[in-house]
């Protein structure tokens, strides 16, 4: 038995499991509270021959069915739960939209 639909994916973003509630605002849309997974994996930014700089790359993973529209660059996310370096209330902007073809979508975020 595999993951076959939105209901199967919903367990991963459930706030009682791995997810948390965030406020998502699409361009021209009213804010929505959705369940998603917020992570801040490390990244190294390098430029030419200079040493890289360590940073975090915040991202949000959610089920495509969570939103009544397709997320796009410049949509906004507000955290309702604090994370190291990202207190509750932090506003972030969508920098890149990466659907995975399985019903989930990863949004690369940046600070506003």
Helix-strand pattern: HEEEEEEEE
Residue fraction in strands: 35-45%
Radius of gyration of CA atoms, rounded to a whole number: 15 Å
> Which strand order spans the largest sheet, edge to edge or round the barrel?
1-2-5-8-7-6
Uncertain runs are none
N-to-C span: 42 Å
The major β-sheet equals: 6 strands, antiparallel, barrel
Average pLDDT figure: 82
- Supply the number of helical segments: 1
Helix content: under 10%
Shape: globular
Got a strand count?
A: 8
Secondary structure class reads: mainly beta
Task: Kindly describe this structure.
It is built from one helix and eight strands, in the order H-E-E-E-E-E-E-E-E. By secondary structure, it is mainly beta. The strands form two sheets. It has a six-stranded antiparallel β-barrel with strand order 1-2-5-8-7-6. A two-stranded antiparallel sheet has the order 3-4. A hairpin with a 6-residue loop joins strand 1 (20-25) and strand 2 (32-39). The chain is globular, with a radius of gyration of 15 Å. The N and C termini lie far apart (42 Å). The mean pLDDT is 82.
């Amino acid at each position: 038995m595999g993951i076959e639909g939105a209901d199967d994916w919903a367990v991963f973003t459930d706030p009682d499991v791995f997810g948390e509630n965030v406020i998502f605002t699409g361009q021209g849309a009213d804010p929505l509270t959705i369940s998603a997974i917020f992570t801040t994996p490390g990244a190294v930014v390098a430029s030419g021959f200079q040493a890289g700089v360590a940073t975090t790359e915040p991202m949000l993973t959610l089920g495509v069915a969570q939103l009544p529209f397709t997320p796009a660059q410049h949509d906004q996310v507000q955290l309702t739960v604090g994370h190291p370096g990202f207190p509750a209330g932090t506003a972030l902007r969508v920098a890149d939209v990466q659907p995975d073809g399985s019903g989930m979508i990863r949004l690369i975020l940046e600070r506003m």
